[in-house]
Amino acid sequence: MEAAFWHQKWKENRIGFHQADFNRWLQSWWSAQQQGEPVLVPLCGKSRDLLWLSGQGHPVDGFELSALAISQFFSENGLTETLSAVGPYQCHQHDDLRIYQGDFFAAPELGRRYRLAYDRAALIALPTAMRRQYATLMSRLMEAGGQVLLVTLEYQPEQQVQPPFSVGEMEVRTLFERDFSVEVLGRAAELDHPRVLSGQLSYFDEVAYRLIRRG
Prior knowledge:
Number of strands: 9
Strand order of the largest sheet: 3-4-5-2-1-6-7-9-8
CATH class of the largest domain: Alpha Beta
Strand content: 25-35%
Radius of gyration: 17 Å
Mean pLDDT: 89
Shape: globular
Largest sheet: 9 strands, mixed
Distance between the termini: 32 Å
Structural class: alpha/beta
Number of domains: 2
């Protein structure tokens, strides 16, 4: 999607993709991860999952295009922030929690690699043509043995043409298996999702994967 599309979404507060609660897969899977290890969170929006990760003792590096989303994250959570220019980004920081405002695809310019990453809303925000670029970028940013908790959505694609997009297991494997091992952690049917209840979608499933970067 073009940057203007997402800026308009935030400006009009059309952010149905935002979750007010901590993600279920994050809470159930992450407990085994080493405290103190920095976590990469691409296309983070104003997700409260950043707070959860920080609360587990992780430095957090979020990346977000929308300055409005970042401003809302800090104000809604009562956090002070310091601003600095870091490479191609404007960095918003509170203690060890940083959100880099700008194009995530410029992240290699920071020269960092990660052993942990969390993607709940990045892959599913991107149209088909950009998902391969995203998978290639994640391969560059993850160290050998590094793990990604990836959360996707599945529904009948012809029933919804706007993001968040449906990304099935076959596509996840096609995108990532060259550089990552791919394990399905679980699937949850969202039977009470408003678009399922209204009949607009036949089903709406949230699926979690563990990706491990090959050496």
